[in-house]
Amino acid sequence: MEDRGSQLSGTSLKVLLAESTFWFDLEQSWNKTQDENEEVDRTSLESSKNVYQVFKRLSDIVQPWICDQESTSYQNNLLIIKACLLLKKSTNADQIITKFYEDSFKAFKVFNKELFNFSDENEEEDDNDNDDSFSEESAQIILQNINLFNEILFQLDLVEEIANPAIVTLIYQQLTGFLEKHCKSEYSENWLQRVFTWMDKGLMSWLKFVNSKFSILDSHGMICDQADEISTFSIESWKQRLEYFVYKAFAELRISEMFEIIVEYPDSLPAIKDLQECLSKTETRRLLTSSLKSAFERRLLHPAVNTDDILTQYVSTIRSLRELDPSGIILENVCSPLREYLRSRDDTIKCIITCLTDQGSGPDLSEELLGFGDDFDTTKKCDVESDGEEWYPDPVDAVTSDAQTKSQRRADILNILVNIYGSQDTFVSQYRILLADRILNNYSYDVTNERRYIELLKRRFGENHMHYCDIMLKDIQDSHRINRRITTEMKKKQEGGEQADQAKENKEKKDKGEEVSVSSKTAPETPDKIDFNAFILSSAFWPTLANESVDPPSQVESLMSDYNDLFKQSKGMRSLEWLNNLGSVEVEVELDEGVTKNFNVTPAQATLLVKFQEKDDWTLNDLATSLNINKSSLRNRIAFWIGQGVIIEKSNDHFTSAQTFQSSQLNNSIYESDDECGATSAQKQKDQELQVYWSYVVGMLTNIGSLPLDRIHAMLKMFASTEASTQCTLDDVKSFLQAKVNNGELVYVGGVYKLPKAN
């Protein structure tokens, strides 16, 4: 006898489902439950029962069409049911089903706490996290309802469309919540495998339960048997899916924390290794690049951050991203804005050199200088064809793959920092300027440390690059020897003069019949004796030094003349050209009350103080005229002594020496530094050097007519072949020529420069 299911037409099934209010009934029953119950336990219990009952009524209605699985219309009827239901699916249906599975998950945890306890130390914490957990009685009923609900879904072949989206949403929520709670900001341990262990124990057990047609529960809600195999998705396919979720969620968490991970490097190395594994399993490299670049721009690349801090983060970024991605692609993509920003800061090279030579300032680069850092040396070319054991293929996001780019990616940290400015010549030139500043600010003949660093830099850049620096140190060492000999001669001369004066005075007293006294003092009480020392510099090898006008006191000028005479005698009549503004003067100031203070000041500041020794009161105009300087420079010099309480401003532009040391009202002020000290700034020196070659540029354009930028640069390097011209980059020449265009001295048309036509 033919079964009734085969006699029912698909058309009648469509009509039946079209008239059904299934989804409306589901929403109504859900809303009613939420409104009537305030207790979480009771609400979830009623909700699970109502969801199951609505689906049970649907199952009963369509049962005649699917009761015979052997019928030829069985599969067709299942497709009709699925199509009609999903076509009319309400917008809130997914939310209701997801909440249903969330309740089942909580109920499952009530009877399987040990599966979700991350560790013994966190057991109590995890248990207390379930403030909205169910009683065992309610949990058992909810599990029974979800079990029966799943049976209906398997029967109607709706697991993929109804259950799986809710399961995926729930699993991802649980996973991200677990990572947020246990793994966030924890960088010193490997967490990835521990997350997988938690997933295998807890999430996979729950998935086995909800993906079985008939999971048989004991009286305590525990799974005691699974009557059949898991349908639709095998447990292995679910496991692969969960593993991908773990890799992706973990990668997203660590990517969002990458800035902090870099800050904590090398303590954060375990977190970097975990992320490295995640990147190999997921397509999140571009997310990492964009996220880290955004973090740098937001938190690092702005004027409020010190250059030392930016360099520290840059060095940590290089080290950490090389651990993360040995190919160097991520490093290349992420650090490009960092390099550009550092290049725009005036003090970057100074900070790099300070980090190389001064401990405790900025990133620790001493190992890089000593050669104990990375395996790459700037003096060696990277042979990308012969380093097979350390070769890594370029990832798919690699923009370029030429040999030069690969060599740059694999350069050591010091080489990367040097190449911020494009060439070693620029770096060494800046080092020479800073070396001059360090020497001229310390005023010590001991250059042992500087010699050590130069020897290390020679290993990096070669003997030729450091030749000028070698001569600078030799000047200081020679100065020590020459100065010792000259000062000894000057003291002998001074002592001989004093003895002659004393003998003459005694003779005059004796002739007059006066008593001759013998003094036990070896030096007069008046401050006539000045301990005078000098640095003797080879001007051709030192960077341009500031040479402002400072007229020394007559007493000092006499010593300088004597010193020069003795130098001529020892050096074959070669003469010294004094830089009066450079130097250090130790002065002792004694006011009327008898209190003395010692100061270490510049020659300009000392010369100013001598004027107040000559006369107590000065106006700004008179003082500027006497010192032969402009008022702006004078204000800077006099502000120092006002700040020290030695000079008082009685009224506007009227100054007088203090009778007693005044309380310092300007000690906390920031004085504008004098331009009289040390080497000139890098940019100022570069402008001065290029100005020397302006005549070459004029000659080129006069003879040829017009030239593009690259030709002018090349010809300057060829014909004006001095150190200054060879170290000027294309950008330096471009800036210089643009300034000439702005001043009307050049015309730039059609990509070429030419001289303006004479009027």
From TrEMBL:
Coiled coil: none annotated. SUPFAM superfamilies: Cullin homology domain (SSF75632), Winged helix' DNA-binding domain (SSF46785). It comes from the Eukaryota. Residues 489-515 have a biased composition (Basic and acidic residues). InterPro entries: ANAPC2 (IPR044554), ANAPC2_C (IPR014786), Cullin-like_AB (IPR059120), Cullin_homology (IPR016158), Cullin_homology_sf (IPR036317), TPR_ANAPC2 (IPR057975), WH-like_DNA-bd_sf (IPR036388), WH_DNA-bd_sf (IPR036390). Keywords: Cell cycle, Cell division, Mitosis, Ubl conjugation pathway. Pfam families: ANAPC2 (PF08672), Cullin_AB (PF26557), TPR_ANAPC2 (PF25773). Residues 416-642 form the Cullin family profile domain. One of its GO terms (molecular function) is ubiquitin protein ligase binding. GO terms for cellular component: anaphase-promoting complex. Residues 489-525 are annotated as: Disordered. GO terms for biological process: cell division; metaphase/anaphase transition of mitotic cell cycle; protein K11-linked ubiquitination; ubiquitin-dependent protein catabolic process. Belongs to the cullin family. PANTHER family: ANAPHASE-PROMOTING COMPLEX SUBUNIT 2. This is Anaphase-promoting complex subunit 2.
